[in-house]
Amino acid sequence: MNRNEVKNCLLCNAPLNSQMDWKRLFFNRFPKVICQECENQFEWCLHEQDEEVVSLYYYNEAMQDYLHRYKFMHDVLLSKVFREEIYYNLKNRKEMIVPIPMHPEKLKERTFSHVDELLKEARIPYVHLLEKITTETQGGKTREERMNTPQIFKLKKTVQVEGKEILLVDDIYTTGTTIRHAKRVLIEGGAKSVKAFTLIKSGFYK
């Protein structure tokens, strides 16, 4: 990998300090792609974890801006921003890593799968077991509407999940509707356990 792949912060465009320190070299860590000032704006989510869903960051103003640029302005380079944190949180997980999928029509519109790209940049192997069966998104719905959403996933054809331990991965956890629907399909298909990991934890903000 070219360790000088990014010369300027992907978020504010400030020049990055490209000097290689021995710790980064020894542990083969990922090259930095954002400056320290931008990094400090993200708020770690460390004290609200449970065994079922683990999230790395809160949905603050800086994260809202990041997510808007990444998902809705289609800036796929921003998939690099949190790759090191994702890698170190998932590299030793024993479960099968399963991204929350996009509907094919939404994938055409966005041109890339944002969750898949986060995992690719973090060098985390994954497998798709689910298909999304509706183009509806949770954004814009009230909390009550989200909680009453009909099933939005199905198992892919020929997929066998019986006895599998699965870790679902998504970008943001808000009411938990998406994770609940995915978990239900997998458990009904025979999965032994289903937990979840998300980059962001949000209060109900829509």
Question: Would you mind describing this structure in some detail?
Answer:
The chain has 206 residues and is of the alpha/beta class. It folds into 2 domains: 1-40, no CATH class; 45-201, 3-Layer(aba) Sandwich (Rossmann fold). 30% of the residues lie in helices and 17% in strands. It contains 8 helices and 6 strands, in the order H-H-E-H-H-E-H-H-E-H-E-E-H-E. The strands form 2 sheets. It has a 4-stranded parallel sheet with strand order 1-6-5-2. Strands 3-4 form a two-stranded antiparallel ribbon. The radius of gyration is 18 Å and the shape is globular. The N and C termini lie far apart (40 Å). The model has no long low-confidence stretch (mean pLDDT 87).
Q: What's the CATH topology name of the largest domain?
A: Rossmann fold
Total DSSP helices: 8
Strands, count: 6
- DSSP strand content: 15-25%
Q: Please tell me the CATH architecture of the largest domain by its name.
A: 3-Layer(aba) Sandwich
Strand order of the largest sheet: 1-6-5-2
Radius of gyration: 18 Å
Distance between the termini: 40 Å
* CA-based shape: globular
Give the averaged pLDDT, no decimals. 87
Low-confidence stretches: none
The largest pleated sheet is described as:
4 strands, parallel
Total domain count: 2
CATH class of the largest domain: Alpha Beta
